[in-house]
Amino acid sequence: MFLKLSSQKLAFLSLIIFLLVWQGLAFYLNSPTLPLPLTVLNVLIEQIISGELPYHLGITLLRLIVSFTLAMLLGCAIGIVLGRNQKLDAFFDNWLVIFLNIPALVTIILCYVWFGLAESTAILAVVINKIPNVVVTIREGTRALDQDLLEMARCYHFNKRKTFINVIWPQLHPFVMAATRSGLALIWKIILVVELLGRSDGMGYQLHIFFQLFDVASILAYTLAFVAIIQLIEILILKPLDRKARRWRR
Amino acid sequence: MTDIFIDIKNKTYQAKGSAQAHVAIKDLKLSLHSHEFVCLVGPSGCGKTTLLNSIAALDNDFEGEISVGQQHVSPKIGYVFQNPRLLPWRTVRENIELVLNEEDDRQIIDTLLEAMQLKDRAHVYPQQLSLGMSRRISIIRAFAINPDVLLMDEPFVSLDAPNARQVRQLLLALWQQRPHTILFVTHDLREAITLADKLVFLSSAPMKIVSEIKIPIAREARDNEKLIEDFRQQLISDYPEINALL
Predict the structure, then answer these.
(1) How far is A145 from chain B (nearest CA, A)?
(2) Across A23-32, A142-151, B19-28, least confident range
(3) How far apart are CA A127 and CA A123, in angstroms?
(4) Which of A28, A198, A215, B93 qualifies as a FRET site for B158, CA 20 to 30 Å off?
(5) Shortest CA gap B128–chain A (Å)
(6) Which residues of B touch A156 (CB under 8 A)?
(7) Domains, chain B
């Protein structure tokens, strides 16, 4: 019976079971540290109506967009340069490994100590954390570029722009999508820490307050909103981009 | 005009990883008149593709000199690679359109697609084509730019016999319509005799010229298969050394 269900129904069923388990557990424990799903939903609606959640979520989202865009642009540019130039790559490879392995928290603390508790510092900390990941992914993609096609482009005198749009970009696209997905997940998490440590608005700041009040229902309500936004980005932006880029595949 | 002079003193591939240094071409001198159709015949791996890449200026890492056409005017070179090299994310038509300049006539794409019987495939992506079709598209792409020089690296391999014959005829027709210099690499001596003004036999690496042979058969008589076959037999008996190269 289980196997006969369509995958859509299956996904729905799994969600229901998740809620039931939560409900059962909360009911059984009967503790303020694990509220019922319905309680969380009530808090969520309250917070949305009061305007508090949209405000803080909006601020975090704005920081996400700015830092994500900066990190992707810089990371792609550096990644392409390193992927195309062996000497530069050999020179900067160590730097990359160092930056990849500095814990996010260290970067954030150092940025705040060195540059002050400002908005631009918060963005900078996120960008510095994210860039090495983008560089590594895009560098891999650039190294894998098809030399045959690049030769063809040279032979037929494609200019730089034409070569980039028609030959290089379509090959990098899967790598950029991979960097985007892993990047969004990473930045979401780092941004909350950045806000928790040095900002007086945004989701990270709010979660910090709820933590001090032991307000688990609010924490879960914010988490829910958070997950919903990520899903929306995936469904409305990333999936259509993927489909468009894959239309030529068999 | 588009005379081509080739004088490669030495082309060596440097040792890389476990591969040893390898002398691909040594003291190769060859000149082509404008509008001449020359077939290069030689064993596989002898460096013919290296030579074509050097002429197309894709590989400039050699000692010697290659001049194509007049100085100061860069000639239009159409290159039919050994593999089709179509962009998989662009449709057939887009692939051909991309090599054209703004001012070029788009009409030629339809004319050529029609001639190759691929008109109904114009808006298909290359992965939905057979290898033979992809090869024909890459030939159309090279024709479309109205080249001064056409480099063809075994273009008809993997086309079935009727298709190959048809594309060969089309190539000759286009060449006569708008003369250009053609350098054509092939293993097939019969094909070479059918197409070329001149055959150039090449040795295995390091590549040099074994012999250059003009083909005396008139163009109009080239569809006479017996004549071609007789000439082939005669070539092989006159020049026993070329037999080893085929």
Answers:
(1) 12
(2) B19-28
(3) 6
(4) B93
(5) 7
(6) 79, 98-99, 141, 145
(7) 1-76+185-246 (3.40.50.300)
